[in-house]
Amino acid sequence: MYQINISNRFKRGVAAISRATLLGCIAFDAIPLRLAQAEETKIVVVTSFPEELTTRYEQEFEKRYPDLHIQFVWKQSRDALAELSKPAQGGADVYWAPTIANFATLRERGAFQKISVDRTALPGRLGREQISDPAGFYEAYDVAGYGVVMNPALAAASGLAAPKRWRDLAAPNYARHLAMPIAAKVGFSPALYDIFLQSEGWENGWAQLSEMAGEAALLAQGALPTAQVRDGAAVFALTIDFFAVSAKANGAPVEMIYPERTAFLPAHIAVTAATKHAAEAKSFVDFALSADGQKLMIERDSMRHPARPDSYQGAPAALVDPFKLPADSILDYDMDIGRRRPPLITLLFDLAIVEGHDERAALWRAVHEAESKDSGAKAKETLSEVRRLLSVVPVSEREAKDPAFLDAFGDRDAVDPQRIAKWRDDLATARRQAKEKLATLGIAP
């Protein structure tokens, strides 16, 4: 669609040439001049945004700049980083994507030019959270919220209120009605779980994730959490908000809940250092960040949150204005840790939650059932130890904040297989010990 795009101006020029030639009213040697006037400047934009969104920007931008043409090159995170690391950055003029890690990495490599913005219109912050590059090499285009999609009718029928905090979902009456995305299968979920872990603390967070997942359904596609809630297969699900907000805007019986201390993570836009069309590339960036450009993302099939506060005027009611949320309700998210942790979180989620999930679910059900009974001090002590064993995570909080340690997991294929095997064995041992301790109480999951 974008590789061959003959502008209307070009078509009109060719048509005029044909008529003039047939009538003999114009000299033959004028044709090259007319064709040269019809040529466009092409701006190459590397992006992972969906076509229904990029098409709007192409159409509206080219109305304003008829001599400029946008060519979108679709690349997911890893491929985009490789493309923009090529000589001359693969010919790209603009990078526009929801990939925090890539923008930080490319900035460190000198891959971007500075861009200037009006900080009265684009604050670059959301609450205490920094969403734009403080040095000015890339700017927040939108922000995506993370939280819980809920089916209000089913929640009411189950006697469950909307969760206010992340940890509410670890309670068994919530977890049994919960769906969770698998970190290795769903692109947004490592960031979601990192928000959870930064909010709740590394060790406490993993303990809560383990308990939540113990009785929850695990899902392998990004749209499935919202679809499960919409269709009544789950009452709650963890998700990124544009799936839920778009579903609600299209009539689905769902609500998006933002727990206390959640985060809204940005997509960014930047001009490449190697561009040969700097002024034109900056025109596209300026348009994407303008009031008109920001409003283009507020449509029923996308429903994204602008990074520009004045763009929320007239927005659909389903779209929460995060700039109006209480500042203390938004996590002071550590972007540097957040860009490094996802590979480690993905690996640990596989080992600690996905593998052995059925066995762990049976153990958590047994713990919850035993805790619901009136038991003595010895039983309570044993159950507390079982909880600890089921919540084991083989990485310390100190390691989980160490950039050098985290960066070692950037390429999973390069991770020491003996380390993975040891972690797998440690987690299996903890499950076995938990089962043995339950057996001392006469409980056989």
From TrEMBL:
SUPFAM superfamilies: Periplasmic binding protein-like II. Pfam families: SBP_bac_6 (PF13343). Gene3D superfamilies: Periplasmic binding protein-like II. Keywords: Signal. It comes from the Bacteria. This is Extracellular solute-binding protein. It comes from Methylocystis iwaonis.
